[in-house]
Write a structure and sequence with these properties.
heterodimer; A: 371 residues; alpha+beta; elongated; B: 232 residues; six-stranded mixed beta sheet; four-stranded antiparallel beta sheet; 7 helices
């Protein structure tokens, strides 16, 4: 018999209570996994999209809601004239409800811009020119909208024809409706407006030169922000808010878990007063009693954490199939997040066990023996 | 000239030992004085409320005196730096209601006091097996206490009390919950273990027949020692 045998035997004494307490922790950890996994999935999706397209610098107005506020597209030519802005293109992107899809990305792209380059036609063709009332759909968008080549598609009040289905090599690209910029500007009532200027810099441009370009853009055009693509997610206000919200919600769930375990462990200590008295009479040190109670709490945390990771992974998988989420982000369950979540669960267990352990260890053996 | 054996060392020495409860409203011990030497078998007898269990609790460091002095091998017990170590290494407790832990098997119960004593799991198991064999319970090692008779439970508790080879055994009404046949068997076992290991045994009982197994009897009443005599 080892110390752990004692720990598990004690937990097994009241299996339903132990299971329910672990479930309390598990729900908190599942919330961490699901919410943080979604935020992380969103981050990875954007990073991958930028990487696939080959964007080095993004210029946008960081005000606005889900998407940055639109600004005058004439700025594009002034940006293109700056040194190190080797290739410049504009995009107007909105999240819209289109036909049966409650939320889908619609991306109007400057005709001939490099953002069209990496789209591989899977079926059909690309639009002939910027004036053809045609759209191409990312593979996932086609699936979500249940559209085939040749089908009509209504965006806002305008009707277009699906001429092709494309593979954009990233989740965000594959989840989008893509069309020529002027068509989308007209359909959405934003003529002459864009919300992104994407820039490629020369291949030999150093980090310092790219940063200098960003500074120059920000100085020249009030209200615009220019960030290197690798930093775009980290500096995005929307992403920061999403991340803060996911962690705040998770922390609330964890606090509920802490009180759940503390309640269970306190009940355990009260119920086992007599047994603790016996252990003290048999020569167990107070720190061994504390260690036993803390170990029980930590084991509940660990097992609750593992169950929570499984629940969280299942939740992520389900969330990933929801129409509101599909095509926008790929829920991300990284090893780091799993380890972090389990570590949090064990810490929750230990933190919840501290007060009960202290209560148990300070019992007087003679009084406890009568208890 | 005949050889004179040296006197046995004093294990416990009490002087003016008193214990009060309820802010002095109850005087459980009222200034008792005694000495117990190594290897003695002392029975403390008296009616309920005479203070005998309070005295045993103090000998086992489960409680502390309100006043007076109680020394263990010359050291003031109240000042012992590590009471848990004393309870684990120096004494073994035997209780009237056995106090075996219900969710652990007999062998596991015997191993429990050995935790924190630097023994490996294998050494603990081997020691428990040896002790259970010595009390005649080798066939019951993997049974839960609930499956044992009263006499068997007390024998398991006796094995547990010997787990760390203590110099002193403190038994509080060890036959109080047993029928006369089992009580006699347990007392025989205790007396034999005391003789074999030269253990100091302090036994609290209200039963004169049980006390007769001891070599010395302290009779208590109202928190005082009325008499201190050799058993007939």
């Amino acid at each position: 018999m080892t110390f752990l045998t004692i720990v598990f035997r004690d937990l097994w004494r009241r299996p339903i209570r132990t299971a329910l307490t672990m479930l309390g922790i598990a729900i908190g950890i599942a919330a961490v996994i699901a919410l943080v996994g979604m935020a992380s999935g969103y981050e990875k999706g954007i990073v991958k999209q930028l990487d696939v397209i080959g964007i080095d610098v993004i210029v946008s107005n960081m005000e606005g809601g889900l998407m940055p506020k639109a600004f005058d597209e004439a700025i594009r030519d002034q940006v293109a004239a700056l040194p190190d802005a080797a290739d410049v293109t504009t995009v107007f992107m909105q999240m819209l409800s289109v036909e049966d899809a409650p939320m889908i990305m619609v991306s109007g792209r400057e005709w001939g811009g490099f953002t069209w380059e990496k789209l591989t036609v899977v079926e059909g063709r690309m639009p002939h020119d910027a004036s053809e009332r045609a759209v191409v759909l990312g593979t996932m968008a086609a699936e979500m909208l249940q559209k085939n080549v040749g089908d009509p598609l209504q965006i806002e009040t305008e009707e277009f024809t699906v001429v092709g289905i494309v593979d954009g090599h990233s989740l965000v690209e594959n989840g989008a409706i893509i069309l020529a910029l002027p068509l989308f500007q007209e359909a959405s009532g934003y003529e002459g407006r864009v919300n992104f200027i994407d820039i490629r810099v020369p291949t030999d441009a150093s980090k310092e030169r790219v940063e200098a370009l960003c500074r120059k853009i920000e100085e020249s055009f009030e209200g615009l922000r220019a960030v290197r693509a690798s930093e775009v997610v980290g500096t995005s206000q929307g992403f920061k808010i999403a991340k803060a919200m996911s962690w705040s919600t998770s922390i609330l769930a964890i606090i509920v878990g802490i009180f759940g375990v503390m309640n269970t462990m306190l009940m355990t200590v009260f119920e086992r007063t007599h047994e603790i008295g016996i252990l003290l009479a048999l020569g167990w040190k107070k720190r061994m009693i504390m260690g036993l109670i803390l170990a029980e709490a930590a084991v509940m945390g660990l097992l609750g954490g593992i169950i929570g990771v499984l629940l969280g992974a299942a939740t992520l998988a389900i969330l990933g199939t929801l129409p509101e989420v599909r095509g926008l982000l790929e829920p991300d369950l990284s090893q780091g997040l799993i380890l972090k979540a389990i570590l949090i669960a064990v810490c929750v267990g230990i933190a919840s066990g501290l007060y009960p352990a202290w209560r148990g260890a300070r019992l007087s053996p003679s009084v406890a023996l009568q208890g | 000239m005949s050889a004179v054996s040296p006197p046995a060392p004093v294990v416990y020495e009490a002087s003016g030992l008193a214990k009060e409860f309820d802010d002095g409203r109850v005087a459980a011990l009222q200034g008792v004085d005694f000495q117990i030497t190594a290897g003695e078998f002392v029975a403390v007898v008296g009616p309920s409320g005479s203070g005998k269990s309070t005295l045993l609790n103090m000998l086992g460091l489960l409680d502390s005196p309100s006043s007076g002095s109680l020394k263990y091998r010359g050291d003031e017990m109240a000042a012992l730096p590590d009471p848990a170590r004393y309870r684990a290494r120096e004494i073994g407790f035997i209780f009237q209601s056995f106090h075996l832990l219900g969710t652990f098997t007999v062998t596991e119960n015997v191993q429990i006091p050995m935790f924190g004593q630097g023994l490996s799991a294998k050494a603990r198991e081997a020691r428990a097996a040896e002790l259970l064999d010595s009390v005649g319970l080798s066939h019951r090692v993997n049974h839960l206490p609930v499956k044992l008779s009263g006499g068997e439970r007390q024998r398991a508790a006796i094995a547990r009390s010997l787990a760390n080879r203590p110099g002193v055994l403190l038994a509080d009404e060890p036959t109080g919950n047993l029928d006369s046949k089992n009580a006699a068997a347990v007392m025989e076992l205790l007396a034999q273990l005391q003789r074999d290991h030269q253990t100091t045994l302090v036994l609290v009982t209200h039963d004169r027949e049980v006390a007769a197994h001891a070599s010395r009897m302290l009779t208590m009443r109202d928190g005082k020692i009325l008499s201190d005599s050799a058993t007939p």
